[in-house]
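User: Modeling request: complex.
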Amino acid sequence: MPEVLIACDAATLAAGDSGYGLIRDAALVLDQGRIAWVGPRADLPSDYAAMPRHDLGGRLVTPALIDCHTHLVHAGNRATEFEMRLQGASYEEVARAGGGILSTVRATRAASPEGLVATALPFVDALIAEGVATIEIKSGYGLDRDTELRMLRAARQIAALRPIAVRTSFLGAHAIPPDYASRADAYIDEVCIPTLHSAHAEGLVDAVDGFCEGIAFSPDQIARVFEAARLCGLPVKLHAEQLSNLGGAALAAGFGALSADHLEYLDAAGVQAMAAAGTVAVILPGAFYTLRETQAPPIALLRAHGVRMAVASDMNPGSSPMASILLAMNMACTLFRLTPAEALAGVTRNAARALGLFDRGVIAAGLRADLAVWTCQHPAELSYRIGFNPLHQRIIGGEL
Ligand code: DI6
Ligand code: FE
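Assistant: Request completed. Predicted assembly structure:
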């Protein structure tokens, strides 16, 4: 039977709406895991008047949050590298010295399947506690066939162990493994693309990602991975313009990418290409903050060109050891001057698009009844406080 929720306000984040889409004194009708109706309580259709009611006690309802960019399946940690960077070493210097991503690769290759899941669950739980109901998880710390598959299976298993939806991205082109040092092209042909095919055959891949950077892969190499993705019928996304500008965002847009992520060094041509392709800009302030980056992504230009912006944690053991989507929202506002309304759209409506999902991220009739209920007066509070979690409850698939 449909159930009626009475909220103080509902931030619907309705499509095409640049603000919160706030409905004061709202009612929501949930039916069979979907939103059946939303609007002012006074307008509740009479058919629903006799349905069971659940009063949310003057609280705010938003779509459940979506963390659309994480590397939360991995082993080990890089606290020592954190110390090195505080002594003055740069992220690139640490990487070139065999640390960085490759140190996590060593730990991840040595981890058991159960170990990978067990290490990831506390990070997943931290996100769930902040109202997250959908997460993306990347591979990319295996860089060999078996470990990449193990990471993706661990990601799928998380969805079976926790009330959370998981979208996987194959990130075989994340770093050049030591056994292929100076042979990046051979790595792409001999390991990355064959592993993509194996993972896809096992149903483990929802999208294909890459790291286009001087310390990782060139645009030509990424293009080869993207061609393989296209032949598999898989959408692509890209870590682009994080540390320098190699034109990765425009390359990704040319492949109709769901998203281009990081983007600190994005230029006007890249912004235009993304706008034309409808590629979402995923803003990752946790990495900007952790690396003490000083060049911010061109937010005003993205906004001016109508490029949708998502915000994510980039939760990973090196450049963004941050398992908090609320902190990512706060940082996006304070460091990059997103408005709190943009930050909320960035972890709901636009995050869904960055994952190619159109059934969530907005409160509207027909969409999944994945909601977050907050002890807040106004949605700006979600971005405003630091280190405080006002979540009251999550509602997943209409389950209170
Ligand atoms: N950029 C990032 O921020 C993460 N991967 C990437 O390509 C960092 C991954 C790490 O440092 O372990
Ligand atoms: Fe990342």
